[in-house]
Design brief:
about 220 residues, binds BIS(adenosine)-5'-pentaphosphate, binds magnesium ion, 8 strands, globular, about 20% strand
């Protein structure tokens, strides 16, 4: 039986960072809707150009397109961490239908709750290696080499949606489209809230406690 957890929270709350730890330490398969969309952009197709135009302004892609991309990634692995999906009530309903029809289980929705001043610093400080996609942050996790990746020496760049005006638009859309999912999952008794201004390590240990606690109840 397939199991899912959802990492949920504002842009910059640390969904991707925590998902990578879940992959490395607990063997989860990571599905990031944002990463899937950025991969299509990198293929330089006509669809990629359209996606680029939308993401670079901070708007959402079509629900059906994103849902199909997520479904394509659900294969033989048993444990999945979803990051960036579902992102509105319609996507949550689509996912709920998927769970009902396949018998897969949504174990927990982990809400990484972060204040706005922290969000701006994290996103404006993020840098990504052009070659190996490793992530850095000029404030919290800087590279040792001037604007180059410590591992492959690739050039570091900012994500196209990490400039100030686009960040503000992403936060506005988060409030109107994504924040209602807090109540959606609270009503289903699936929501766990973590203060995401803690350190990366502290947040990960909270997540592990939540997941282990769950196993103990089984
Ligand atoms: P997506 O890629 O999902 O971006 P996002 O949700 O805006 O979130 P981010 O990736 O910016 O932040 P994060 O929470 O992963 O934080 P991270 O770990 O990187 O989506 C991008 C776009 O794609 C959307 O705007 C939309 O256009 C489209 N899209 C995606 N999914 C969609 C969907 N389902 N439907 C429709 N459209 C969709 O951390 C951020 C920074 O902070 C890093 O530098 C990190 O090192 C640092 N950091 C992390 N944790 C800590 C900590 N505890 N302390 C200090 N620094 C930390
Ligand atoms: Mg991310």
């Amino acid at each position: 039986m397939k199991e899912f957890i959802i990492l949920f929270g504002v842009p910059g709350s640390g969904k991707g960072t925590q998902a990578k730890l879940l992959v490395d330490e607990l063997g989860y398969t990571h599905i990031s809707s944002g990463e899937l969309l950025r991969q299509i952009i990198n293929e330089k197709s006509e669809l990629g150009q359209k996606i680029n135009d939308i993401i670079s302004k901070g708007f959402f892609l079509n629900d059906a397109l994103v849902f199909d991309l997520v479904l394509e990634k659900i294969k033989e692995s048993k444990k999945y961490v979803l990051d960036g999906f579902p992102r509105n009530i319609n996507q949550a309903n689509l996912f709920e239908k998927y769970l009902e029809t396949t018998g897969a289980v949504l174990k927990k929705v982990i809400y990484l709750n972060l204040r706005e001043e922290d969000i701006l610093k994290r996103l404006s400080g993020r840098r990504v290696c052009k070659s190996c996609k490793r992530e850095y942050n000029i404030y919290f996790n800087p590279t040792d080499k001037e604007n180059r990746c410590d591992f492959c020496f690739g050039e570091l760049e900012q994500r196209m949606d990490d400039n100030h005006d686009v960040i503000l638009n992403r936060l506005k859309i988060y409030q109107s489209e994504t924040a209602p999912l807090v109540d959606f999952y609270r009503e289903r008794n699936l929501l766990e809230v973590i203060n995401a201004s803690n350190s990366i390590e502290a947040i990960f240990s909270f997540i592990k406690k939540i997941l282990v606690g769950e196993q103990c109840q089984v």
